[in-house]
Amino acid sequence: MTAVSAPGTAAPVSRRLVPPSIRRRRILMSVANHSVAIALSVAFLLPFVFILATALMTNQQTLSPNIWPHPFAWSNFKTVFQSFPFVRYTVNTVTYAGLATVGVLLSCTPVATPCRACAGAGGRSPSCWCSRP
Amino acid sequence: MATVAERPPAAAPEQARAAERRRRRRRSAWRRQWVALAFMSPWIIGFTAFYVYPMASSLYFSFTKYDILSQPRWTGFGNYRFMFTSDPLFWVSLRNTLWIIAILVPLQVIFAIATASVLTRVKRGLTVYRTIFFLPSMVPLVAAALGFIYLLNPAGPVNRLLHLLHLPQPLWFIDPRYTKPGLALIGLWGIGQVMIIFLAALLDVPRQLYEAAEIEGANPWQRFRHVTLPMISPVIFFSVIIGMIQGFQYFTQAYVISRAGDQTNPVGYPQDSLLFYSSHLYQQGFEGFHMGYAAALSWVMFIVTMTCTILLIRGSRRWVHYQGGFR
After folding, report:
1. Is A79 in the same domain as A89?
2. Scanning A88, B67, B201, B224, which has its CA 20 to 30 A from the CA of B282?
3. How far apart (Å, rounded) are the C-alpha atoms in residues A120 and A24?
4. Is A71 on the interface with B (CB under 8 A)?
5. Over residues B259-267, mean pLDDT
6. Which of B33, B137, B163 to mutate to test the interface with A (most CBs of A within 10 A)?
7. Does domain B81-325 fall into CATH 1.20.810.10?
8. What's the domain range around A133?
9. Positive or negative CA dihedral for B100, B105, B110, B114?
10. Which residue of A has its CA nearest to B30?
11. pTM of this prediction?
């Protein structure tokens, strides 16, 4: 956009003039791109909105044709923690994720170490299991 | 050889030293090989115990009749013969799976390229759009399937929207004709990870190629067809292969949708329209306890997936262009 002057010269940085026709076209393009992007965002977000709205409905409301919860049933979120052993399940998930991560790191890092070593040697040494000859 | 023959007096000690050097190098190479092996041993042990051994035993079970409780009984190719000649559900499940691979996977690739190229064209708010587009792929598959069961239920929000727009309102997961389009919606909604790869690939296309094409007078479609597509063809190839492999393993969404309404529904409800290859395998193995037959099914799936991958790689040489002419 701007013509950058060479360092040391005191010439003022001049803004290149964009002809109005091109400016108009650029603005139109930008509007078009943003409207497509916004439409896609709505499509991607709508399921979240619907499900969040449903999460705040009472069970009777979910069967009614209204899309928006009328009395907000915030107690649903309390029920989640009470209706099943939430803490137990969370601990299970976290334990699994933690052990899997540790296991991957423990088993894969040693494998990568000799790979790195032979990559440093040009990848041609006979101990290279990783690179193709 | 010739130079050695010309200088016999100095050659003997020189040769001995060279041989010694070579021996030492070989010995150290061997030692390094063992060190490398030792480093790899955790992975090798895991790979043997959790991949090689189960694969070998499943190959053995595929030739037997085995219900976990009693000893496996050798039946030769009986399972395979039954699969191809007298199991109608095998062909149904194969057809449904091929629907996923032939229709959903190309749709996903096209949609991912389209969303990614929208992202390359906006300048302000890029991070917001990118986050929104990626968000659905963070939803666990089971949660996504349950959510869409609600969204697409006959009186659900989607059908109400369609009603407002005076469009036909299909019964989605109740009508066998619309179950797979419903799955396609879930698949397209969770496109985030593929889209991110395409976004990186699109941003990687050198700008000067577009400038050159523009100077030559190429219109936007020609620029896309002859600059963008060849440049991102390795990523298209990658996502087609990954999509195909995952398509053969398509299971979770279909299983959850079949069973969510009523636990006693058969896998593939309604009318086997959601019976995929993996669902069939699961049903045979873990509900019918035909472990031998399930093992045979999984080996056929493995061979088919492998064959398709090899065919795709063979065919890719004609349309995949690697930068720098590599391969």
Report:
1. no
2. A88
3. 55
4. no
5. 75
6. B33
7. no
8. 85-133
9. positive
10. A127
11. 0.77
Number of compact structural domains in chain A: 2
B292 near B65, Cβ under 8 Å? yes
Distance from CA of A11 to the nearest CA of B (A): 30
- pLDDT of res. B324: 58
The amino acid sitting at A38 is: I
Range 50-69 of A in CB contact (< 8 A) with B: 50-51, 54, 62-63, 65, 67
Does residue A63 lie in a domain region?
yes
* CA count, 13 A, side-chain hemisphere, B179: 22
How confident is the model at residue B105, as a pLDDT? 92
Tell me the CA distances in angstroms from B147 to A63, B175, B189, B200, B262, one per residue in order: 15, 18, 12, 30, 16
Q: Does residue A6 sit within a domain?
A: no
- Domain identity same for A92 and A125: yes
Q: Is it the case that residue A43 has pLDDT exceeding 70?
A: yes
- Interval B39-53: pLDDT, tens: 888 888 888 999 999
Residues of chain A positioned with their CB less than 8 A from the CB of B147:
47, 51
Q: How confident is the model at residue A1 (pLDDT cuts 50, 70, 90)?
A: very low
